[in-house]
Amino acid sequence: xxxxxxxxxxxxxxxxxxxxxxxxxxxxxxxxxxxxxxxxxxxxxxxxxxxxxxxxxxxxxxxxxxxxxxxxxxxxxxxxxxxxxxxxxxxxxxxxxxxxxxxxxxxxxxxxxxxxxxxxxxxxxxxxxxxxxxxxxxxxxxxxxxxxxxxxxxxxxxxxxxxxxxxxxxxxxxxxxxxxxxxxxxxxxxxxxxxxxxxxxxxxxxxxxxxxxxxxxxxxxxxxxxxxxxxxxxxxxxxxxxxxxxxxxxxxxxxxxxxxxxxxxxxxxxxxxxxxxxxxxxxxxxxxxxxxxxxxxxxxxxxxxxxxxxxxxxxxxxxxxxxxxxxxxxxxxxxxxxxxxxxxxxxxxxxxxxxxxxxxxxxxxxxxxxxxxxxxxxxxxxxxxxxxxxxxxxxxxxxxxxxxxxxxxxxxxxxxxxxxxxxxxxxxxxxxxxxxxxxxxxxxxxxxxxxxxxxxxxxxxxxxxxxxxxxxxxxxxxxxxxxxxxxxxxxxxxxxxxxxxxxxxxxxxxxxxxxxxxxxxxxxxxxxxxxxxxx
Amino acid sequence: xxxxxxxxxxxxxxxxxxxxxxxxxxxxxxxxxxxxxxxxxxxxxxxxxxxxxxxxxxxxxxxxxxxxxxxxxxxxxxxxxxxxxxxxxxxxxxxxxxxxxxxxxxxxxxxxxxxxxxxxxxxxxxxxxxxxxxxxxxxxxxxxxxxxxxxxxxxxxxxxxxxxxxxxxxxxxxxxxxxxxxxxxxxxxxxxxxxxxxxxxxxxxxxxxxxxxxxxxxxxxxxxxxxxxxxxxxxxxxxxxxxxxxxxxxxxxxxxxxxxxxxxxxxxxxxxxxxxxxxxxxxxxxxxxxxxxxxxxxxxxxxxxxxxxxxxxxxxxxxxxxxxxxxxxxxxxxxxxxxxxxxxxxxxxxxxxxxxxxxxxxxxxxxxxxxxxxxxxxxxxxxxxxxxxxxxxxxxxxxxxxxxxxxxxxxxxxxxxxxxxxxxxxxxxxxxxxxxxxxxxxxxxxxxxxxxxxxxxxxxxxxxxxxxxxxxxxxxxxxxxxxxxxxxxxxxxxxxxxxxxxxxxxxxxxxxxxxxxxxxxxxxxxxxxxxxxxx
Lengths: 535, 535
Fold this sequence. Notes:
- Chain A is an alpha/beta fold.
- Chain A has 3 domains: 18-114, no CATH class; 118-287 and 503-517, Rossmann fold; 291-500, Glycogen Phosphorylase B (Rossmann fold, 3-Layer(aba) Sandwich), CATH 3.40.50.
- Chain A is built from 19 helices and 19 strands.
- Chain A has an 11-stranded mixed sheet with strand order 6-5-7-4-1-8-9-10-13-12-11, with helices on both faces. A 6-stranded parallel sheet of chain A has the order 16-15-14-17-18-19, with helices on both faces.
- In chain A, α12 runs parallel beside α13 (369-389) and α15 crosses α18 (483-499).
- At the A-B interface, α7, α9, α12, α13 and α17 of A face α7, α9, α12, α13 and α17 of B.
- Chains A, B: It comes from Motilibacter peucedani.
- Chains A, B: Belongs to the glycosyltransferase 20 family.
- Chains A, B: One of its GO terms (molecular function) is alpha,alpha-trehalose-phosphate synthase (UDP-forming) activity.
- Chains A, B: This is Trehalose 6-phosphate synthase.
């Protein structure tokens, strides 16, 4: 599917450039952050492939606005200066306010920072989005004992998730209305499941898509939510023309939910569902990375120096390096990764002293008890393995609980194998980054339960995330793989990533959505997508 | 679907009677148990609807044999006396050896008790079947931390589950071969997923069905198993002509697993999957109870006396009675049931002193840590609720950790509401039993995640198993429901159960399978089931 999308994207490389309609993007995270330091306003551009891709898109458009949450006081101040409307910015590396005198091809983007009541936001973000939706969609609950859904969760939904979604839906609808009611709206992720149908109710001619970046499990998993809430979530999403996912499995699961939980007629061949006289399509666009930016960073002086330092520190005598880079999220399956590493050392004692495991882990959501417990489990297993298998004062695991992207990239260039053993993962970009900039032909050890496995599994050593013996065996196979095979696999995987970078991910979506904007010249009534349309 | 099956069963009430082919049944539990007491051999008939139904079938057949596990020394001795072959028994209430001089219509059944190596059986039963398969199929694992699949589990599968399945497959195949290779084989449950394809390999003309009594979750859940094991399980089951479940959801999930995990072409309309030139059908037959036997027991002197005793003990001043009857299995969701009851008393203090909760719980699998932990949680929450809400020395919850079926039936006749809030449950027969013999128009409070909900949900108060506030509200609605509505609902539910009792459950299967035995007059090649055949 990744390949198919890539091919399609290549036919349509100019799809975004030819797009002559306004675009409204919604995501919780903003593409910029406003700060005040020493009395001066600073505007910092956000990191990540999504920002890069969408800012790239904005540069090609006459009219683009990004709706997102205000998170700093200075965000709120900037929004207030524009009466809550969009702040026009020139989105260069260091964004600046646009004053209308920019060159025609300047990448101007309106950024609408929505100020949400802090209590509502807390309920919306800290109770419903995380952990509830995140845990359900990643299958993290031990259902025998959790969650217990009670008034707290119900109130957080009704007094947090719902009004926050309404506020963002209003902001999106206002931007659409300001453009005459016709715009392409691209919603993002699990924070905003209730936005699409509200926007459609106000703006019936809009073209709406919603990209879901995390796994979409089958109907069984959604039974954890009260019936009315899960139905509202599905109905909300069915306000879209397209609901988009990273993999075919997630798209199919979404359709099965519509069938099983709402009783709607679905078609698994055309990947569509009929609702209220409309047809909604589930589509698959595997996200990727900004290859050029990553390669540039990997060859920067900073990263070269960091790599040399890691080499001296960790691999002074030509040791092999196993690497993982993750947030400390239970979905990343870090504890079982260390259990597998422990088995590997026990079953292959010749590796003790010749293999280092650099675990570069960014602490995450420590205010959620499951996450702080999980961090404790990580510390416990690392202590045990290091105590048992230290040689000459050197411990086999180097646990670094910090975030520093250049160091992670330096480690990518150096490592012999990278471990991605997630329980469930929408895509996993570490896998794509590592194979792209590896200089030692790193072997990708990749969980079958990641979105990335659909594209890269053929060139990876596949991991079963629950089977620690299998993971230990797979790591051994990776670390003893003949050099030629390592080189071939890494080159092939890197080729796949280069062939479908994040710009193409976006372009493939735009190309599909453009077909729908073509309907604007016709009657707005009737099905918007032909039920027989195929990918 | 229950209704549809019922209608079909009524057209075919004589399907079993008209069955003129040999039948071989396989289940882990035996229909009889041999014991030796004071030097004498005793033969005790097993309890439960399945035994009743299948013994009833045997009574109508010329030739029926039941293959099962020997569990006592005397079982093994009886099997040895017949060189490991079937022991012929007259299956009256107190079974006796058949000597060939019985009346033509005597219910003679051959019982083949298979002796399994105890270590293999331990691995097969205590590691793979329970907890591994049971936990996966009921969604009980907290996947962030368990299970860790390692050599123990791999060895238990390869050296336990596989050889035990082979031994039972051999026993079944021998019985089929002794009947000229043509027999109807009915396999049962999660212990024997690898039997069907082995039997088919030895006996290509056999007609094979496998009934799965527990939930069949979607593909996501099966990813917990190593890829080779889950594929072997599915391939094993695809040796059948029919794989049967309690609900449409389970049947659909099975087909989706064949598609997603094996890449086989499925048809959700005809509910079939194509494999190796054959067509395998997923079918739905909701199991039921032996209505006549239950009604007889409910009106027995023993149960009448037990009911009077419960009335005096628990309800001396006309209190209302809430009842649950379960094994202490985490899938039964007992702890959340007590949490909901606690909320109910807190939010409706007028119920304190006027409502008793009889929890009749049979301790289960206490050698499995998850189960003994769960029993501890039950004790803890009961202590808290009883300490907080006792009035005049009377605690609201009467927790009875024992099994005594007549007392449970007595409680069915007395109660005002029965709570079945399972997380996941293949069918749940408590729901069917309670509405059948209730004399106080008990309101059935029934989890949407039980198989029974597909048939009885329309007449029940539906429970969301994870939402304790919703459960508390639903219990309140049940306990304050107008008498007329209670009576109407209970009568309607009892009608459904009476209309589809366990004999009809079996007869509907036989009726479908008879069509396949008709193919014995034709070439054994080619598809056995037409892919266009519909339920």
